[in-house]
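Lab notebook: predicted structure, single chain.

Context: the supervisor wants predicted structures on file for every construct in the current expression panel, including those that have not yet been purified. This is the next one on the list. No modifications to the sequence; it matches the entry in the shared construct table.
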Amino acid sequence: MEHGVIQDPKQTYGDIGNLDVLCRCRSTKHPPYDKVNPGDTIYIQRKGGPIEVKYTVSSAISTPYQEIEEIRELCKASTLYNAVEYWRAQQGRRYGTVVWLTDPKHIAPPVERKVAKGNANDWIVLDKKEKRWQWPRL
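Prediction complete. Output recorded below exactly as produced.
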């Protein structure tokens, strides 16, 4: 499966072209919860910018949690682990997905994409034709 991820510069804890892990914490079981698997492709776009890089998922874990520290521990060997502001912003949420990335491929030149009105999601599972048209095959 393919995924489109829009990284907000305020929440990016590293260079999007050199990430080792992505983490999404939610109040509900909203994607990517239970929607991402090893071997999937993830396209990364900086919010308001073009698609710049794609990764392959090496492993993924979706799990409910009581304390944010439970999800943070899953990221222990990553660059995200010490991103204090990121973890502070995740307080009060109950469902987390940690996605380990491999094989970054920089897209040169970066590719602009069509944006559907009202689509402000930061993680889009490209499982339907209506979603797929927004993300060019790279």
